[in-house]
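pasting for ref
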Amino acid sequence: MKSTLVGLLLLFSLALPAVAAPTDEVIAAEKARGRALLAGDATALASVLADDLVYIHSTGKHESKAEVVAGIRSKKVAYERFDLSQAEVRLVTPEVAVLSGTIDQRKLGGGKWADLKLLFHSVWRREAGTWRQVSLQTVQPPAPRP
């Protein structure tokens, strides 16, 4: 009887879908943002950005969600490469996470293509079960010391 019960519990546990950890969900949301940027998909991008987004570019330029999405929609901003690495998530509360890492990208902006390797720091908030980016700041890493 005991072995049958254990067997049934094991069988049911294998049938249940795996539940992603919040940290994995945040990284997945960041990767979805990257895919939207690469595809030039303003609608998909808007779905992962919070309405109150504040984006501070490595140049110091500040943008809102509407400005970021408009840039992609107009094709004045485009991406050919967007590679995320060294991603680390720190859960601040069950509904707020901080994501840091590096992005290696090729980006069109201001009429010119640029290859950039940036450090980033972003804040994500869970809204109705979906992680959305609230804040993003990028910076160029310091030059290596000789």
